[in-house]
Amino acid sequence: MSNSLNFLAFDLGAESGRAILGRLADGRLSLTEAHRFPNGAVRVPGEAGQYSLHWDTLHLWNQVGQGIAAAAREGPLAGIGVDTWGVDFGLLNRHGRLIGNPYHYRDGRTDGMLEEAFRRVPRAEIFAQTGIQFLQINSLYQLLSMAASGAPELAEAETFLPMPSLFSYWLSGRAACEFSIATTTQCYNPRLDRWATPLLESMGIPPGIFPEIVPTGTVLGPLQACLAEELGIHPVLIIAPACHDTGSAVAAVPAAGRDFAWISSGTWSVMGAELSEPVITPHSLAYDFTNEGGAGHTFRFCKNIMGGAGRTPFLRRMDRDGGGRQPVLLCHRRGRQRIPEAGRYARADPGVLPAHRTRNSERERGAGPLHPGRNRVEVPAAAGAAGGDVGPPAGTDPHRRRRDAEPPAITIHSRCNRPHRDHRPG
Fold this sequence. Notes:
Mean pLDDT: 80
CATH architecture of the largest domain: 2-Layer Sandwich
Number of helices: 15
Strand order of the largest sheet: 13-14-6-1-2-3-20-21
Structural class: alpha+beta
Shape: globular
Number of domains: 2
Radius of gyration: 21 Å
Low-confidence stretches: 325-396, 405-426
CATH superfamily of the largest domain: ATPase, nucleotide binding domain
Distance between the termini: 29 Å
C-alpha cells in the first residue's frame, strides 16, 4: 500500500475519547480504533465548601500523545485532526500558557447568566447577531459570568481557545479557531462571518482575546518539533477538521444531495438538516432552533433532544453499588411508571450531573450541551427552510461543502469481533 495515506482523528466527548486511524487507499477509507480513554468532570472544592467542575485537560492531553504514538506504530501519519464537544474553552496568557483548568459546562457559575445577558442586550438581538439557541452553558454566558464577577483570569487572558483549538494549538503552535466550533460559542456572527464584536463589548467581554477564524480543512502547520521528537515520529501536518464533533459527525452522513435530515446521538441527541445558510427568523427564535456551523461552511439547522443525560451517572452508580444493571431493563418493562431508584441514581453523582442542575433543566430550555456525536441515523426529510431573513449566500468559496458527489465507501474495523461494514449512500 505504498500509495495509501494514514490520517489520525481524535474525537473527544464528554464521557470518552478515541483516536481513529483512517487509511485512504484506492478510493476507500478504512477506519481502525487506535486508542480509547475515559473522560469526565472533576470536582474541586473551593470557597465556602462550594465545588467547581473542571475538565482534566492534562489527562486528555496525555491521552492524545498516547493515541498518536499508538497510531504511528501502524505506519507514517499524513495528518492529525481533533474534534471535541462545544462551548467549553481555555484561556491563554500573553506567554501562550494555559490559565487555570478549563471549566466543565455544568459548573454552577453560569446560574443566572441568561437573565444578566438579557438585562444587557435584548434576547432577540442576541439571536439576531448569533443565530444560536439560548443555553446557559454556552461560551458567551461562561465568559459573561467571568466578566460580571471580575475574574482575574479574564483580565489576564490574551487568547480564547475552544477545547479542540486548545489541543490543536498545543500540537501545532498556532492559535486559531475553526469555523464550526466558533459558531457554538454564541460569540460568532454568521451574517458577517466574524466574531460578534458589538455583542461582546455590550457583555463586557474583551473582543481582542478571540483568535482568527479558519475554514474547515485548514492546515495549521506541522506537529511541533519537540513533540515529534518526544513521540519518535516523522513530521506530520496538524489539520483543523470540523472541530465541533457534531459537525464532523454530520459530515460523515452517507447521503448525497440535500434532501435528507440527520440525528446525531451521544451523551445527548440532536436532529436537524444541513443548509447552506443560517435560518435567523422570529420563528426559529420562537421554536428555539439553532444554527451551528458545519464542514464546508454549511449550517446545521437543528434542535437538541433531551433524554440520555442521566443514563451515564445512573449506570456508574449502579456499578459502584454492585447491583448490576437490571434496573435498566426494569425501566423498559414498566414503561411510563415512575421508578424512584432511577431518579435517585441519576441525581446521585453531582460530579457528572449535579442535582441542582437537573432541577434547573427546564430553565436551560430542556436542551443539552452541543456535543453529541458518535452515532448517525439518516432520516428522509426536506432539508430546506422556507423564507425569512437568512445569512449571506454560499457564494463560490472553495471551502464550502457540496453534497453532489457520491462519497467513498467506508470500511469500519472494530475490536468487538463484529463483521466489517461497508457504508455507501442509498
